[in-house]
Design brief:
403 residues; three-stranded antiparallel sheet; two-stranded parallel ribbon; 8 helices; 68% helix; elongated
Length: 403
């Protein structure tokens, strides 16, 4: 009952306060309209006075009329001024009443808070009394011990909290110091420098990635081209061996490659290609280095040169053979001569082919001379002064026994 009555009074005061605010707003609007009308009338009077000044010399009758209208405006101005003062007095009175209502409202709210606080205090006192009665029970000793333990833990946590707060203050001071350092001349452009450096690093990493992809693609293309060329070389080498070699222990020879991957990433790996010449007999492949005669190795070297020239030297067809018949038996020499003759015949129409053979074997030269494309050869001799000179001779001389 003691709390409800101040609340009802407070509601009544709030209603009166709203009404007073509405009245104050209405009077303010009236004063605003009057001031606006007064300003318009004053402005009109000024305009009439200006017009009167302009027409004073030529319009005497208008002067009297304007003078009368000006006096009327002055009277209206005084009337409006008096009315404004009356409204201002009423407004001041309403503001006073509003201030008094606000004070009364604040006092009532404070009274309500006090009454509610007293009621809560009384309720808490009753609860304390009940708890004291319950705590006198011996069965609650364990509860008391638990409460003491909880209190001890709370104190420990408070101590840890204080230590954390102390460390936090230290961190905050360190952060403030670092912020001051960042504002110095040494670090004022650090963010922009970091941004520019980050852009450079990003561009460099992307460029490196693109280059790695390019290198990988380039190496794959090179290896595909290498495999294609090796296939052509082995095909040509197989045909030459079958044509030239007269023995039955080797069907054909070919060049095989072994690839070794280097260390590092895909773009850093440098593949090493090892080449070896193998002899093929049926399904068996044997390295030629340790399992062939000197003549077979010489013949293989010659045929590999011819195969390389066939694949790579279409636009630069110069082949030089130095003592190609060394360690070859008579049958293989004849086969080699026939192969070279066939090779010359194939290249005869190209217009940019030249075969140079350096040999002491005149029988081999005679065999080459049986080809329709070889008419003469040059023989190196020495004169009485031990000077070398060349003599052009016809291959027919070798055929007729005139060596």
């Amino acid at each position: 009952e003691a709390v409800r009555k101040p609340k009802e009074e407070l509601e009544i005061v709030e209603v009166e306060l709203v009404q007073l605010r509405e009245r104050v707003g209405s009077h303010q609007k009236k004063i605003t309209r009057l001031l606006h009308s007064l300003g318009n009338d004053v402005e009109n009077c000024r305009k009439y006075a200006n017009k009167l000044s302009e027409r004073k010399g030529s319009a005497g009758s208008d002067l009297s009329e304007l003078t009368g209208r000006m006096e009327t405006c002055q009277e209206e101005y005084q009337h409006l001024k008096t009315k404004k003062k009356t409204l201002e007095n009423e407004l001041m009175q309403l503001k006073g009443e509003l201030s008094s209502s606000e004070s009364r409202k604040a006092a009532l709210k404070q009274c309500i808070k006090i009454r509610e606080f007293e009621r809560k205090m009384q309720k808490l006192q009753e609860d304390i009394t009940d708890l004291d009665v319950k705590l006198e029970d011996p069965e609650l000793s364990s509860v008391r011990q638990t409460a003491l333990e909880i209190q001890r833990q709370i104190e420990q946590k408070s101590q840890v909290k204080a230590e954390k707060l102390g460390r936090n203050r230290g961190f905050q001071e360190e952060i403030s110091r670092l912020k001051r350092d960042l504002g110095s001349d040494m670090f004022k452009d650090a963010e922009r420098a970091y941004h520019n450096h980050r852009i450079k690093c990003t561009v460099g990493m992307q460029t490196q990635k693109d280059l790695d992809n390019y290198i990988v693609a380039y190496r794959r293309a090179v290896m595909r081209c290498h495999a294609d060329k090796m296939e052509k070389i082995n095909r040509c080498l197989r045909d030459l061996w079958v044509t030239v070699y007269r023995g039955g222990d080797i069907d054909y020879i070919e060049i095989r490659t072994d690839e070794d991957d280097g260390e590092g990433g895909a773009a850093k790996k440098r593949k090493t290609v090892n080449y070896r010449v193998v002899m093929q007999k049926g399904d068996v492949s044997v390295d030629m280095r340790q399992h062939s005669s000197a003549g077979q190795r010489v013949l293989a070297a010659l045929l590999i040169r011819l195969a390389l020239a066939e694949v790579f030297c279409n636009n630069c067809g110069i082949i030089t053979l130095d003592e190609p018949t060394t360690n070859l038996d008579k049958e293989n020499v004849q086969s080699l001569a026939m192969a070279l003759s066939s090779f010359i015949k194939q290249r005869h129409g190209s217009g940019n082919f030249q075969l140079i053979v350096i040999t002491h074997d005149e029988d081999f030269v005679e065999l080459l001379g049986r080809s329709e494309f070889i008419d003469y050869y040059f023989k190196v001799q020495r004169d009485s002064n031990n000077h070398s000179f060349l003599t052009r001779k016809s291959v027919l001389d070798l055929t007729h026994g005139n060596k």
